[in-house]
């Protein structure tokens, strides 16, 4: 059995910089025709100058591949001039509401203090990409933030808002309530729950933010993905950390999946008899929702097993050492 | 300000064996007049012979202290002869329902397959100590197991059943529903929630089973403890693991608190204006509920700060390196 995918896109990706960029960016570019590149470097990518530098860095690290990086800016109080100068070089602006507090009212207030920026983004047609968590109890953060999504979607009906890496049934249900809300979901949140992180022994390699939630949340995410809900896109949130940062106390949050995303999804969609919807989930929905035109590539997967390496350089992938029943056989342009 | 406690008891304690026993048992015996010693060695303490050996080991490791170990057997399908031979040497039998599955009905069936043993324990007046978790979703395991407690308490109205290390509001509410149910609670579950384990970076030293729950669960445990609910006892579940077993992937579950329990509780009870209830919580309730008579000791605490060591041998305590505002000044017999 084989599956052919056209121009798969990863709509939420961390590739870092320097040596880590050189290690991980090709692991995405080898399979994907494009990816949304997150701007959370230290310092963040929040000037047009820094955006151009980072774009050229990502292009350099992925040269030789038919791969288009869709760049983002880190949200701050931008001027109209800055937004105008950035617009043609970004796919959106990523907001992490650092000041949002435990209750969602405060979260709304905090986020909405940036009213004027959202207004300009709406006028200029720049999408808003949001890490939607309050600072509340870890299992409630996304559900509480849904009130912020509601308020944003209502106030800015023409602002395209992406709920990034959603993890709850509540966020899934918002997709059908507001025309201008769409979402990404990670492969790992379709598969794991908090049980996999902390139900047996503690597994730092499955520890991520937002944290994996309850079985009924996973079920809602999975159902929406398997039917390729038209407003849902693959966004892996693949986030490399060196082994020492994951395996020590104070483990950093992030799951590294970049090189195994397509085999994981093939296995998952085939198991549920939904392989006919994989193309929409991994590419067509994103192309339509963002109006992007990635390079034309063809990825052929077959149900030949692959062994997941113990590590890629210093980075330990999800399910290191296990095998998947599907693998990528060929990528052509 | 000072607090004087008489014969404090830790009604749920792990002291292991060999070098670990020699390290940690004195750290309890220096402050406590007695402790319930858990039988989960490898292999478990599940014969009268092994019980006698372990009792003498614990006595050896705590010799010189006014300290009484209250021993337990590891639950299995014991004969009447075995129970009779053990009865005068144990405070109870500890059940870990290893076969209990995700749903509570199956949990009940599994546990109740041991009907004949519970019946004999009831007749012989041997208390049942229970690790009450199903194999369900990690945040639901104790709440699901409450159905098993209900069934046990109803079927064996004269069997004294201790719900060990409770972590949920639901378990607290059972205390008032069934005369023969009582519970222990750990100091750390009065203080932390899942946020402290996985809400920021991952903290392996606060990872334990049952896992810390939601804020409203902690609140219910705290309220019941601060008023020294007559059926609630301090049981620290202090569980030493060497640093390498806590700080590696596959972190073992357990929080080590033995040497800081009384200062932690003094700080907590004073902060809430409940210091007058500390004696009942740390000793009187247990003496009444179990009918035990520990050595008469007096522990004097003062609000002089103590610095929590980075480690005790290879064992990292809760809050290593932080300071507490209370400390133990003197223990007299």
Q: What does this 3D model show about the protein?
A:
The structure is a homodimer of 333-residue chains. Chain A is α/β, with parallel strands linked by helices and 333 residues long. The first copy, chain A, has a single domain (2-332), classed as TIM Barrel (Alpha-Beta Barrel). Helix content of chain A is 36%, strand content 16%. An eight-stranded parallel sheet of chain A has the order 2-3-4-5-6-7-8-9. A three-stranded antiparallel sheet of chain A has the order 1-10-13. In chain A, helix 3 runs parallel beside helix 5 (115-124) and helix 4 crosses helix 6 (141-155). The longest helix of chain A is centred in the middle third of the chain and has 15 residues, at 141-155. Chain A starts with a strand and ends with a strand. Mean pLDDT of chain A is 95; it is low at 100-104. Chain A binds chain B through residues 137-139, 193-195, 197-199, 201-205, 207, 211, 214-215, 246-253, and chain B through 137-139, 193-195, 197-199, 201-205, 207, 211, 214-215, 246-253.
